[in-house]
Design brief:
The protein is built from 21 helices and 27 strands. The N and C termini lie far apart (68 Å). The protein is globular, with a radius of gyration of 25 Å. The protein is α/β, with parallel strands linked by helices.
Length: 634
Amino acid sequence: MNNKDFKNVSYDGLNSLAEVLESCMEKYSTYSAITDKYNNVFLTYGELKEEIKHFATGLQALGVKKGDKVGLFAESNGLWMATSMAILKCGAVDVIRGSNAPLEELHYITAHADCKGLILRDEKLYNAMKPFLEQYRLDFVIVTYSNGNLDVTNVRSKVYTHQDIIRLGKENTFVPVKMDRNDDCSILYTSGTTGNPKGVLLSHENSIYQLEVVHEGFLAQPGENTLQILPIWHSYERIGQCYYVSRGCHLHYTTLTGLKNDLATYDIDTFMSVPRIWESIRLGVYQKLKQTSPILHDIFDFAVKTSICYKTHRMYGERRITNKFSYNALSTIRHRIIRSFIKPLHVLFSNTLYKKIKKAVGLSKIRASISGGGALSMQDELFYDAIGVNLRIGYGLTETAPVLTLRNVSDKNFLGSAGTPLPRTDLKVVDPQTFKELPSFQKGLVIVKGPQIMKGYYKDEEATRKVFTEDGYFITGDLGWLTKQNNLVLVGRLKETIVLSSGENVEPVPIEEAILLSPYIDQIVLVGQDRSGVGALIVPSKEALEKCGINMKDLSSYKNSNILTDIKLENLIKSEINTHIINKPNLRVFEKVKQFTLLNESFSVENGLMSATQKVKRNKVFEKYEQVIGNMYK
C-alpha cells in the first residue's frame, strides 16, 4: 500500500458509525482488538463483530428500534465498544455518561433523554441507582459486569445481565435497519459548570467524517498497540477508540493506578491522553531520578536543557517558530550554525540517556502520540520534543464531535499551536463584538463550520441558537489566532477573560502556564474579576512543602480553613511567581500577580473542581473559594 492510498480513507456507501466499524472489523477479523485484563475481556476483531451482532439482536428482541434512546452509563472498559455499537446497529441512539457521575445527574439524564432502557457498568452502579430505578418504568435495565445476583425488589423494569442479552441474541435473528448519515447517533452530556448538563446531539455523519479525515493526520496502522485511559463518555476518547478500531489497532485498557506498569508492559505504539497525564509522566521521570541518584538527575536535567536549546535553534533554522511573523536571513543562518555545534551532544543524549529513560517509562516504541482535552504547557511540549517523543496536539469540543484542528504527524511540528483545521472545516478568527474576520496573528474568537458540527443541544433550542451565528457558524467560545501557516494558537476561553475594575482584560491561561514552570507550584487559578488587580489561588507542590519543613501529615491542621498560612512557604511562592511570570511573552504591568492565597487541597475530579479530562472548573473554584477570594482583596 503506497503512502497516498494509506492516507486517503473513504466510507462511501456506509451510512452509520456501526456499519463503518463493522466493515473494518471484518477486514481485520484475525487481529487482536481488545485487551482488558481488569475486566477479563480479550477479543479479536472477528469476535468483537460477533459480540455486537448478538447484543444488537438481543436489544431488538427487547423492543429497541430506530430512534429509541438507550442510556449507556459506564467508564471505559473492554465491552463498551460492543455495547455502544450494538445500540447504533439497531438504529437507536446511545445516551452516554460516566458511571462515576453524580447520581442526581444520571437521574436527570435518564428522564431528559427519554431513555427506553439503561445499560449500567456494574452492580455497584445498579445498586446506587436502584432508588431512582424504582421511579421509572423503563423497558429494561442491563448490567454489564454482574455475577447475576441482582436485587430487583421494587424495580419496575426487567433487569438483565450482559450475558443474558447475548444469549437472547443468539436465539433470535437480527433485522437490518435502514440508516441515513444524518440520523441521530449519540447524545453526549456535557458537565456544565452551572445548572444541569446539556445533551450534545451528534449525527452519524459527524463521527464518520472524523474517521475519514483524522487518519491523514495520525496514520495509525493495523496491529499497532494503543493504551486507553481516558473516560469513554468524553468525545475525545470516544472518537479516538472508534478511530483505532477503524484502523485495526489493538486497544489495551488501563487505569490511573495501572498506567505506569501497562505503559511498560504492552509496547505501546500510539497513546492518546490529556495534559495532566503527560505532565505527571514528566514529573515522575524527574522524581524517580532524584530518588535514585541526584547526580543522574542533574545530568538528565542538563541533557534536556541542552536538547531544548538545540531544538529551538533548529526550529528557527527551519522557520518553524509558531509566533514568528517573518525571518531574517542572517539570523536564520546564525541559528543553523549554533545548532550544528550543539547537535553532537543532543545526538549523544538521544542514543544513550533518552533511550534508557523512554524504555523505563514505556515510551520507547511510541510512533506518535496525541494530547487533547486541554492546553498542554510549553514546558511539557519542549520536554517531549527534546527526548524524541512525537507528541502532537489536537483541538475540539464535544459539540464538534470533537476534532477541529490537528498537528499532523507527517507535517512540521509547530510547538505551541493546536494545528491546522481538518479538511472541509471552515475555521475563522473574528472580533468577539462585530464578528468581523481578523487577519493572521490577531487574537479573536474562534468560530467554525464543518461536517463535524453537532445537530444541536437535545430539547434545548434556545441554548442551540445562542451558540450559532446567523450565517451558521458554531461559536466555540475559545480565543485564539492563526499563523501564516494557518496553525491555530489558543490563548484561553472568552468566559475565562478577567476584566479588572480598571477595564483592562487579562487572559489567565498564558500567565498560569508561565508560573506553573516553577517546581514549587502544583496548581494555580488566577482571580480578579472586577477587582483592582490580579490575584491567585495556588496549590503548592510536595517539593515546596518539604523545602519549608511542612510535613504532609501537618496539613490536617489546616482542614477547617482550606488555606495554608506559613510565612516561609508564602515567601518561597512569592519569589517563584516573580521569577517565572516573566516567562509570559509580552507581560503587561497590570497582569502581574499582586496577591495570592495558598490552598491545602488540590483541585481534583473527586472534589468536583476538575473535569474528567483534568481541566479546572473555574466557576466551581470561584464558587467554593468565594470568601477566600474576597478576603484576599481586603
